[in-house]
Every structure is written in C-alpha cells, then in structure tokens.
Structure prediction request, 207 residues.
Amino acid sequence: AAFERFVDFLEHSTMTAREIRAVLDEIELANIQIHGYGSLNFGRNLAQCYQRLAERVVQPEDLETVRSFALEILEQPLEILPGVPETLDYLSRRHGLTLFTKGHPEEQKLKIDRSGLGRYFEHTAIVKEKDEAAYKRLVEELALDPGVTWMIGNSPKSDINPALRAGLNAVFVPHARTWALERQSLADPGARRLLVVEQFSGLRAIF
Prediction:
C-alpha cells in the first residue's frame, strides 16, 4: 500500500509506522480544509510529511517518488466486501438508493465504474465534504422525506453523525479499517433512529 511504501522510503531511524501515520494524519487534517481529497492531494500530504520527517537532505526527485506512491492508489484493485453486491441488489428492488460520496469527482466516478456497483443506485452525488449542510442540500435536491430516509455507512464523521444532525435516520456498519480521521463517537440520534449492524448483509433483515 502507498503508506507502507512511504514508510519504507522514509527509513526513519526512530519513529514507528504508527508515529509516522500520526504526523501524516495531522497534515491531512489541516490540508483537507483547503485542498479536499483525492490522490493528488494525498501525494501533496505525503510530500509535506517527508519534508518534515526526512533525516537526509530532501531532493526534488525524492518528492516526486513520494508523490508517485499516492498515484498508485488509482491502480490498486478495489476490495468489494462479502455480501455487498447481493445486498445492494436486494435493497434496490425494494427502495430507491442514492450513492452519496465525497472526494475528487473524476476519481470517485472511476472507483464507482470499476466497482460495478453503480447500477444499483438511482442517483449518485459526489461532494467536497459530507457535512450536515451537504445532507440537507441532498434532501432538498432529491425531495426526500427525512423521516423515512436512511444513511448507511461506516464513518461516524461523514456518514452517521452529519446525517443524524440533518434529520435523517442512520445505520452504522463498523469496519476495522475505517480511516482514523473518520472515527468519532456516534451522536445522540435524538428524535431519529440509529441502528448498528455488524455486516452489510445484515441490512436485509432491516429493510
């Protein structure tokens, strides 16, 4: 993976991969507000991290190498979790599904095309950030009824909490490899419903 290759290239004499990841997370958290997501921005973040931590003179070709690690993400095979296609097929026959994601539009469209899952969704919306305002815009644009609309996802920060604040219901599907910057405590659902299922296929028992 890109980060593992970065750690190997950095060859830091004292810092562990976890400590390096913490520095990178700090850089990413600051830069997301300015530049957003996507492989080019990830490459920029890796380059800044390298400049901060490198124990040798930083050469231009070193930064190019580091940025190239990020571009490899676009070529990595997508991992489709077990039961996802079958569950989406089941849900799409019973409900109108919208794919709501964030990031670089062209890169996200490429991922959707490569996944083969786009056919299960009536609508696709790609935004810079999935916050409360973005969910409210989506509800307005698609004329959704918040009381019977559900957000399903694995990120408390981008999927569950802002959806609840926007007046939607939510289903949290935990995943062990959820990005550290997407982790938060689950919000109080208030008047809405918040459910937790351990596997994506568990949605069939709910909907």
Q: What stands out?
A: The domain at 2-75 is CATH 1.10.150 (DNA polymerase; domain 1). The chain is about 45% helix and 10% strand.
